[in-house]
Amino acid sequence: MLARNETTSGLRIKQAHFPEVCRIDAYDFRRQPALNRSQVLNLAKLSFVDQRQSVIWIGPSGVGKTHLAIGLGVAACQAGYHVRFFRAFALLKQLWASLADDSLEDLLDELSKPDLLILDELGNSPRTPEQDFAGVFFELVARRHRRGSFVLTTNLGFDEWASALGTPSQVTPSLDRLIEGAHVITLPRDATSFRANRTEPVAPLPRLKRRRRPSPRGPLTPRT
């Protein structure tokens, strides 16, 4: 039974599309004294997922926001939840492009299914002036509002989100829904960067055991 659970957990982690596997207990809280360790460990109990609440990590680059976001996602996979991970800019581009071929509703339907949707690095990639993501971001948030949780990481304060998304009048209602009951954790701008001093390799994604397929037999040749 334990082996079966581990296999199922590994499959959920694989299907979440994490760029690497990170765990909350591997985060070095000693190097981030501004971060409330008890608060993070309490989030790892995942009651926020059951309550359809969101977690928003705000802070400078390199402080471990992505590690913590993935750590919550991995814990959720191990607990049996359906999780998906996306780089925020890549997903926003996909949503925006779906307007052209009228596939937005289908994409939103798919994105409404996971119990937990992780959007990483909002604002790290610049958009072009014509890429107004605010409308599709609102549709995503509205579709999941009170139905599923977000974990979102960003280096932008809420007053800067329009620079990453677009039309401010559409960003405001998105924020209103997103932060309703949300857990907002802000790291100071002078927080220690882990990335500059990282020496250990990242953990690989778990490999799934695949059944070997029998090799096809060639055509029978008649005996002479």
Sum up the overall morphology in one term: globular
- DSSP strand content: 5-15%
The chain-level mean pLDDT equals 89
Please state the structural category: alpha/beta
Largest sheet: 5 strands, parallel
Distinct helical segment count: 9
Run of helices and strands: HHHEHEHHEHEHHE
Specify Rg, calculated over alpha carbons: 20 Å
> How many β-strand stretches?
5
Q: Determine the N-to-C terminus distance.
A: 55 Å
Flag low-confidence runs.
213-224
Q: Spatial order of the strands in the main sheet?
A: 2-3-4-1-5
Question: Helix amount, in percent?
Answer: 25-40%
Please give a structural write-up:
With 224 residues, this protein is of the alpha/beta class. The chain is 38% helix and 12% strand. It starts with a helix and ends in a 38-residue tail after the last strand. Strands 2-3-4-1-5 form a five-stranded parallel beta sheet. It contains nine helices and five strands, in the order H-H-H-E-H-E-H-H-E-H-E-H-H-E. It has helices at residues 2-16, 37-43, 47-50, 65-78, 88-97, 104-111, 134-144, 161-165, 168-178, and strands spanning 55-58, 83-87, 116-122, 149-154, 183-186. 32% of the residues are buried.
Question: Which helices and strands appear, and what pairs or packs with what?
Answer:
Elements: H1 2-16, H2 37-43, H3 47-50, E1 55-58, H4 65-78, E2 83-87, H5 88-97, H6 104-111, E3 116-122, H7 134-144, E4 149-154, H8 161-165, H9 168-178, E5 183-186
Parallel strand pairs: 1-4, 1-5, 2-3, 3-4
